User: What shape does this take?
Amino acid sequence: MYSPQSLHRWGISHSESMERLAYSQALRDPMAMERANLLNMAKLSIKGLIESALSFGRTLDSDYPPLQQFFVVMEHCLKHGLRVKKSFLGFNKSLWGPLELVDKLCPEAGEISASVRDLPGLKTPLGRARAWLRLALMQKRLADYLRLLITRKDLLSDFYENSAVMLEEEGAVIVGLLVGLNVIDANLCVKGEDLDTQVGVIDFSMYLKNDMDDFRSEERNGQIAAILDQKNYVEELNRQLNSSVHCLQGRVENLENSNSNLIEELAIAKNNIIKLQEENHQLRTENSLILMNTQQHLEVKQVDVDVERDTYKHSRQGLDQMYNEARKQLKEECQLRQDVENELVVQVSMKQEMELAMKLLEKDIHEKQDTLIGLRHQLDEVKAINVEMYTKMQSSDDGMKQKNDMITRLEEKTNQITATMKQLEQRLQEADGHRWTAEEGARKFKQDFANKADSLQRQITHKEKQMQQLETDLKIEKEWRQTLQNDLERERDAVSQLSAEALQINGLKKEFHRLQGENIQLKNICEEQEQALAELGCKLSESKLKIEDIKEANKALQGGQVWLKDKEATQCKLCEKEFSISRRKHHCRNCGEIFCNSCSDNELPLPASPKPVRVCDTCHALLLQRCSSNPT
Assistant: This one.
């Protein structure tokens, strides 16, 4: 944002150049003549309003005539070049359309628009626009809002023609002039005023003056400019002082809040320490009880384990005895197998004798073939029995390997028997005559062989039952061992849990010691902060004394400092170079004289302002000498 002084100076110089351009182009373009006239009227109305308001010396109301003329001139300036829009009721020219755009460009203007829409007495867009201008003037933001509006010419082109005041340079000049209205305080009653039916007519009689009035007005303008410059300077100093006071107050409040928070945290920490001490005492008592219970439980478990070990030893002795008995029974079975083998040898010798007899039985070949078929079936049955015995013997333990060997021998002998039977088949062709005798011998052999096979099957089933009993006993012993192992594992888990609880108790002791250390640290921090608060209180009292000294210096400056007017200076006081558009005017905040930028490019803090402000070279040297001579 531009400062009010720079905008005021820039508006005057620029307006003079704009007047010359307007008069040169007046004969060519009638719209340019209208813009020039509106610019002149705006200057007259703003200037007259400021002069009359300063001489009036109090807040302005809606009945003040220069203020009414100002609103009429602003209405004509905003209406210039406004496009006509078609509607259902006909053609319409409305100022409310472009003013509504300010809400989009500046959210702060939304309050004005909302209050204008909520007014019950306004029915036309023109009335809303007039109310908006009055509210913006009371806010002292009229120049800011219109400056934002004229910068967006792409949006204004929808509402204005290309040669309108708001789209040309005259609009920027008028907005610059409006900045001076920020010194005026107005209290306008918009709610009860009839803004829809007012007729906006400019009264030129207010601006017709004689030579004496012009001379007096020039003197008055100079006085007003000096007063405005001093007022702006004092306002800047007051703002800086207020900002510094607010900063110090905020720091004091933050320190008070932090101190209260630390006190609360100290109280909470003390309560936590007391709770932790109580919990530690409870944990110690519980730990002692748990240790007593675990010792008793371990003693009981130790007695149970000893008893179970004794029972295990006794059961192991009984199992060893049973195992020895089983081995004895297996040896007896082996002897029985040997006896069976001897009987089979006898039977083989008998078969050899039968072979000699079968040589004589060649006549009954066909009948003996039938008997051979029956023998084959019987042999198949014997083979099936032998296979079942073989499978049963494979399922037994390492102690049954000898039985498997005997079964293999029996299978070999049965194979030999089958081979001999084949030989008998060949020889039976020759022994037809001795058929009957052979059948009788074969029947006897069948009966003897079947009886012996039944006896062997009975013995095998008995032994299998004994083996099953032994297997069940072994399973029971294994389950008993597993239960003992599970009990031992449970006891180990209980011991590990007790050790873990002991470790937790040690960790709680460490945490208690750590909390004690933190409590001591917090106490030290609280003491340090109390000392810092005391020091800050001393500093605040010193800063209040300094502020009072600054206020006294400010009052002295307002009464004694001479602020040079802009019109009185045409050249720099030091380098004596003339001012121009490129070489701007700058006031020294210490002596009040006007210098160029190169001769016043220095900043120092003054008694009237804590922040560094612009001073000239001579004042800069003098102030530095004072600071070096008075280091305090």
